[in-house]
Amino acid sequence: MHPHLETLLEIQDLKTQRRELAAAGGDREFQESVFGLGVENALAQIDEKVTEMEASLPPQVRGRLQRMQAKHPRVVVPVIRGTCYGCFVQVPTALASDVDRNEEVRTCQSCGRFLYLID
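The chain above was modelled as a monomer; its predicted structure follows.
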């Protein structure tokens, strides 16, 4: 898998974890006592790591990531059986059947999300 695509997936996972942690509400005291880490501190650490990872991306990829994050919570989606699981539109056959799957950063022509291919 292309290193930038791996980074994009990691950023997406961290942002999902951040949303879930921020929405924990009444569970905060429990999480703080069990894990020994304040939720606000954990959120700050996640934000710092995401910023660091975003800075490692090339400007074109980083720009698209920031634009897509403004519209969609999931910006990296799988292609399963030729269908983008962001917008559920068929991707071109040449893209879906490419031998060098996931060895370059690709985007959906319909929704603009980053794609990774699954059989």
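The mean pLDDT is 88.
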